[in-house]
Amino acid sequence: MEKKESTSSEMITRPTFLKLLSRYDTIIEGLSKQGKPNTQTLTLSELDQWRLNELPSIIQQRKQESSQEAWLEKDEVEKLIQWKLKHGTFRPRLMKLVESNSAEDIKNVTRDAFQIYNKSWTADGPQESLGWLCSLKGIGPASASLLLSVYDPLNVPFFSDECFRWVMDGVDDRWNGEIKYDFKSYDKFFDEVVDLRARLKDGNEYVSACDVEKVGFVVGKEMAAGGNKGKGAASKQKEEKGESSSVKKRARDGDTQEGDSIASRTRRSKRLNDV
Q: How far is the C-alpha of 165 from the C-alpha of 212, rounded, in Å?
């Protein structure tokens, strides 16, 4: 009998990871076809293509044409939030809050946040720039990570429900638990993504943080479709072996709620690749 491949983030192999990654577009296409067609708005598939491919290219072009400066325009941030609401849980008030930001504020804040990201990585990782982005109305840690992920999709994972639950399974059993959308949770999640990318490295080739996000989304959606709402995969497999999951302990500051500044935080993680 052929051994079933593990899809837990702690045990997954690179071939299995890439196999799951190849199913992402199909799942997005399927989700795009759900509900009533609306010719006035872009589908999830169209928004996904724009977020993953077109917008990062636009940002890189801005860097080349503006002495390495980059920023997001108001319509781009609103479009990213539209993607987030279609991709995850719909929150009607969120878009109105984001739309209340001025075009000037969005351009200035995102430009400053990207500059902070470039200068402060070795000391603070992405945390200081995420805190800066949270000065915009309607932008909390999850949305801030989305904005920063299009600037550096190689290293910055979006704080999505599915990816967080998948990556943190085995560290904490998160498939059923409530997610706290704060900087402390993102900090733990970010470190685990760094560790996962390092483990799946093939020579000098790393999987991207964006690819980790995609695989987490695939695992989450396929588990939901299969009715598997029990304990996480890693927890189940370790229990079968008579092992207990160990919680990785790291020294951290206290909880930082949405919108709080975290410029004074430090971290050990570093980028695995440059942009």
A: 12
